[in-house]
Write a structure and sequence with these properties.
0% strand, membrane, LPXTG cell wall anchor domain-containing protein, transmembrane, transmembrane helix
Length: 134
């Protein structure tokens, strides 16, 4: 050995350095694969034909429900009348006032387990108000 190297006392033997490049390469490949899979999935969703929801017109639905009222079922008729009429009345204050008064008269058919059948006078009032709105 070289005499100059023998004089050097602070040189240490070679140390083994861990090589993690294989794991780094695998992680990068997995990330790229996941990215491609996500992009493929998004493109596939975009190509899929979308189902269009039919937009339901609440006023048309209310008219349909009012026309189909079964006056033999007192409770159902009063509830349907009470739910559908405000949509059709809208901003008309006079009709709304009459509707509220009639609804207070019809409360005897609500909130009970067994209700009497609708009186003919109540049916006539309901039909008259419905005729004005429809």
């Amino acid at each position: 050995m070289n005499p100059a190297l023998r004089q050097l006392k602070d040189i240490k033997p070679p140390v083994e350095v861990p090589d993690d490049s294989l794991w780094l390469l695998i992680a990068i490949a997995a990330a790229v694969l996941l990215l491609f899979l996500a992009l493929w999935y998004v493109r596939r969703l975009k190509r899929r034909p979308r189902r269009r929801r039919r937009r339901v017109d609440p006023v048309a639905q209310a008219k349909k429900r009012l026309k189909a009222i079964d006056f033999s079922d007192a409770k159902g008729a009063v509830y349907t009348f009470g739910e559908a009429m405000p949509l059709l009345i809208g901003e008309n204050d006079e009709l709304m006032r009459r509707f509220d008064a009639l609804l207070r008269d019809l409360e005897k058919y609500k909130y009970k387990k067994v209700v009497p059948s609708l009186q003919s006078s109540d049916v006539k009032k309901m039909k008259a108000l419905m005729k004005e709105v429809l």
